[in-house]
Amino acid sequence: MKVKMLSRNPDHYVRETKLDLQRVPRNYDPALHPFEVPREYTRALNAVKLERVFAKPFLTSLDGHRDGVNCMAKHPKSLSTVLSGACDGEVRIWNLTKRECIRTLQAHEGFVRGICTDFCGTSFFTVGDDKTVKQWKMDGPEYGEEEEPLHTILGKTVYTGIDHHWKKDIFATCGQQVDIWDEQRTSPICSMTWGLDSISSVKFNPIETNILGSCASDRNIVLYDMRQATPLKKVILDMRTNTLCWNPMEAFIFTAANEDYNLYTFDMRSLDEPVKVHMDHVSAVLDVDYSPTGKEFVSASFDKSIRIFPIDRIHSREVYHTKRMQHVISVKWTSDNKYILCGSDEMNIRLWKANASEKLGVLTSREKAALNYNQKLKEKFKYHPQISRIARHRHLPKTIYSQIKEQRIMKEARQRKEMNRIKHSKPGSIPFVPEKKKHIVAVVK
Amino acid sequence: MKGKVPEKSSLLALSQQEEVVDLLKDYPLSASEDEEDNDGERKHRKLLETIGCLDGKNRQRLAERSEASLQVSEFSVSTEGTGEKLELAELLAPVKPSSSLGTVKNQLKKVRKKKTVELPLSKEENERIHREAAYNKTSQDMDKWDPVVLKNRRAAQLVFPLEQEQVLDAPIEEVLGAWKARTPLEQEVFNLLHKNKQPLTDPLLTPVEKASLKAMSLEEAKQRRAELQKARALQSYYEAKARREKKIKSKKFQKVLKKRKAKEVLRQFEELRKVNPTAALEELEKMEKARMEERMSLKHQNSGKWAKSKAIMAKYDLEARKAMQQQLTKNRELTQKLQAPSDSEHDEDAEEDSALIPDVVNEAQMSINGPNPWMQKNRGVNTQASHIQKKPVAREESEPEEEEKAGAEDDALLQEVEERRSLRKGSEVNQGSQKQGHRTKAPRRTEEDEEVLAELRTLSKHINKKANKMRQDGEQHVSPAPAAPKEPSIQREEQSLLDERPERVQTMEDIETLGMEEVSQEQKQLRPGVKRRWQQQPQRQHNLAEQRSPPKMEQEPMIDLHTIITGKTHKANFGLSVPTIVDEELWCWRLPMAHLCVFIRLRTEDSEDCDKEVTQKQIIKEAFAGDDVIADFQKEKREAEKASTPKDIDLSLPGWGQWGGPGLVISARKRRRFLIKAPKAAPRKDKHLPNVVISEKRNIQAVAHQVNVLPFPFTHQNQFEETIKMPVGTTWNTPRAFQKLTAPRVVTKPGHIIEPIKEKDVEPSSSHLGPPTLQRKGQQHAHPRRRRLKKAP
């Protein structure tokens, strides 16, 4: 005889501990879930709203400088250490975890124009208005020892910027010309010049370490090759480029922060047209720094805000500002891709989260899963009007807001004029110039 | 240049000629008397020549050399060559070309051929070229990054830092060497370890282990290894053999093999019985248990999918039938009660067992192929009658002679039971004979079984008595083997098992009748058109006029519109032969309207020769005469209205709070209670507009949430909708899929420095994508690498 018995395995319904989640048996048959899209949409809407609710990016302000913070440098080996140079010649070293200054030294008379650390993180270099290049130990002086630089190089002209090679004991300064120095020597091993105007910034390529980029006050960006000791190419833009930054994951990509409120991302192999023109700032862009993942960069502007741009987007995904933050002169993205530091005119260094609504600290796996899910939902429904509206929504200071509006009007007027001109002239006589090409004056070989 | 050289030489020649001519002109003035005749002749010739030279373009003068005279008049110097440039070569050239000056001349020519050295490039120009070359070189170098960058941009997930720090698994000795016991607990543990001579610095082997390692000599180890090898080889051979044998498909071989194995088992069992009776008993018990399990399970019975399919096939396929029987015999074997021949009690039990089950239950119907398992099920009316007649035969087969006495008594008893049962059944059958045909026997059968069981219980007392008697008789039959001789009992048991199942089982006859029914049904279900055609075929031959009306009448309720149309076409096609129309009528009623129109047109084309006045326009008019556009529209509007009105929701569930089942109706009260009445719909916007349908599907509230423009990367609406349709959450996805779907694009490790990408991440194969175009062009680019860093002054 067939005897049917109910038999249930307790493993299927009993929790191991009472902290476990209850096992929920599910039937994934889509016929049973007719409302999956509306439900997910609601979740996405909630997620995007929560993201805005939790978007509190400002972490702390590091105060101590007695003048505007002119330059900053990351420590190559320690995430918590940051160096900053002020307009009064003072250099401070900060500990980010403690949020305090751990060392102060009077490096120069006048501005500290540039600061950089060597690739191993044992010393750092500063250049100042007093025509000197100084090398300092990273660790403070021993007890009874005086605060003195390891080396001092006296130059003939003012140095306006400095950058260290990523692998060798070589650094580059800029001023009247680009000089490449060996750490051990007092004279440059190579000087490269093209044109007469002063060069405001020089940067080593972090991947192809022999290539440098510089920008000068005669509106140009010049690339150099250290091996061949020659400049490579020069591109002249509409306005002066303040600084540039190389992408740490894509060897040939760099972004230039320009005075005309825009940032230009170039492929160094084709300089006649930028890959992307990033425009959202309403005043000159003073500094730019790439995230270590190479997917985004942060820019500091004279309009008292910093913005984060994805490299493939024209517009920024985030804008940070506070009431007290003045013109932001320097900005850095920390090496763990988590934080952004900005030094501004009003003597403060501010620490921001790179992802405004990110929860700091250790996440449980369930939290992580929920965050990932929310992220995915936001991505999935990003084209829906409500969701994109909420995700885009930002409060801006009145000045920036009104300026954006004004500039939009101006831009529209310009466009309208151009369109009218094209409309009322012989077809083909006025060529259509794409936005990318508009800002490039010339490429000099 | 080369082209110029001969030209110049000819010029030279010309100038020489001119000189000669000058000399000639001087000649007449220096006349000598002794050569007057000659002079005259020469003069004459000269005259002729000059005359000849006057005309024509090729005014060439003869180069003739005469004697030189000493008197050269200054007046006779001609100005002929003044316009021409005097060349150096002319001056140098000797009057008579001599070989001594040839080399000098050649050198001079060479000098003349050489161009002037160009000015050196300006510094700027030079630098520009250098820069260009260097730029091209570096940008070509950069190309090697292209694949890497592309890969990273496209990557579904990037994990930073790119180089994961590898955990070095240092040997434990090193780790422990650096580590020291500090806390009291640790120290205690270490003390313990020291005392027990446990290794601290080299914890891989304890002294005992080391000693044991040393204990085995090399030869011994070798021997062991050889042994092991041999054993392994043997095992593999044996395995290979078994595999080979298993693959042999010959049934005969397999049968023989099986038999042999069975014999072997038996023999072993016998031996075991002799040697160790307790073990044998245990073995027996084991077998018994297996049998019980088999009985409990439904394995090897005809309830499986395979068995059912075979049951259907059995009718047509001899193989399938055999397979069925084989399976049943297997079941029999497995469920057969084992009997230890020595054990008298077991024997009795067995007998009791066999007696317990009435033969009626185990009735096997004999067919040509022996007992057909499928026949036993059918305890319908037709088989009931034959039960009593057949039973003795079955018993004859099943019972051995020794049991005949007991068997007779049994028979009498059982026959009684059987008769009673058959009587009862007869009445039942009369009641529900229709049901029998439908094969809804299952519940009834269980009832029957219950009856049987009750009867059996009453009988058991009798049988027990009988068994006792038998024991007294002392006739104990000894079965030589547990498997072979108890064929009848096996049969009985197997049959009883089969009977007990409440499921539907088909007999061969049933299947046959079913097949017949299906065929007849199929015939009924055939398309009416086709069927009618079959029926009409002979009729048509008889009478065409008559034959057209009856099918139409049949069709009328189904397709009125089409018949109208076809009727019309018929009217239009007056002169056509009737049978063809009928033929087409038969299929055209299935066509949709659009096709019909075409069809009609075709038909008219066919009939053009017959009927030329009928214009196309008319035909179309006629064709659409039946279409009432207005009515259609109204119908459409009505449907739209109906669709837009909200409907009541009936939430009543049958069987909740009351009896349910087929044929039972949900009570009106319940239905009323669970009916959610829909609210009255708002008046339609097109209520007062009879000719307009205004769709009210658009939900204004939802519009704000809907995407109204196709987003950029998508090229079609469907693509976008597909992406939205696909759910991501755990509610609709398995955990694994959920994890995969929600994997973030960029993963970073907190507290880790992300270094820039390294040179070694470039695959060596990916470098130098294109040929270096530039290096072919310029000679300056030859060694750009060799240049060193310039030292500043």
Give a written overview of the molecule:
- The complex is a heterodimer of chains A (445) and B (793).
- By secondary structure, chain A is an alpha+beta fold.
- The mean pLDDT of chain A is 93.
- Helices cover 16% and strands 37% of the residues of chain A.
- In chain A, the strands form seven sheets. A five-stranded antiparallel β-sheet of chain A has the order 14-15-16-17-29. Chain A has a four-stranded antiparallel β-sheet with strand order 1-28-27-26, with no helix packed on it.
- The N and C termini of chain A lie far apart (96 Å).
- Chain A has a domain at 59-353: 7 Propeller (Methylamine Dehydrogenase, Chain H), CATH 2.130.10.10.
- Chain A has helices spanning 36-53, 365-380, 385-392, 398-423, 435-438; strands spanning 58-63, 69-74, 81-86, 90-95, 100-106, 112-117, 123-128, 132-137, 151-154, 161-164, 170-174, 178-182, 188-192, 199-204, 211-216, 220-225, 230-237, 241-246, 253-258, 262-267, 276-279, 285-290, 296-301, 306-310, 318-320, 328-333, 339-344, 348-353, 440-444.
- In chain A, a hairpin with a 5-residue loop joins β26 and β27 (339-344).
- Chain B has 793 residues and is mainly α.
- Chain B has a domain at 305-332.
- In chain B, 59% of the residues lie in helices and 2% in strands.
- Chain B contains 33 helices and six strands.
- Chain B has helices at 4-26, 36-54, 88-92, 102-113, 123-142, 146-154, 172-178, 184-195, 207-215, 218-247, 251-275, 277-296, 305-313, 318-335, 344-356, 381-398, 404-431, 433-438, 442-473, 487-500, 508-525, 528-542, 544-555, 560-572, 578-588, 593-606, 616-623, 629-644, 668-674, 700-703, 717-725, 735-741, 773-777, and strands at 158-160, 366-367, 370-371, 649-650, 675-676, 746-748.
- In chain B, the strands form three sheets. Chain B has a two-stranded parallel ribbon with strand order 1-6. In chain B, strands 2-3 form a two-stranded antiparallel sheet.
- In chain B, a hairpin with a 2-residue loop joins β2 (366-367) and β3.
- In chain B, α11 (251-275) crosses α12 (277-296), α22 packs antiparallel against α23 and α26 (593-606) runs antiparallel to α27 (616-623).
- The longest helix of chain B is centred in the middle third of the chain and has 32 residues, at 442-473.
- At the A-B interface, α1, β13, β17 and α2 of A face α5, α31 and α32 of B.
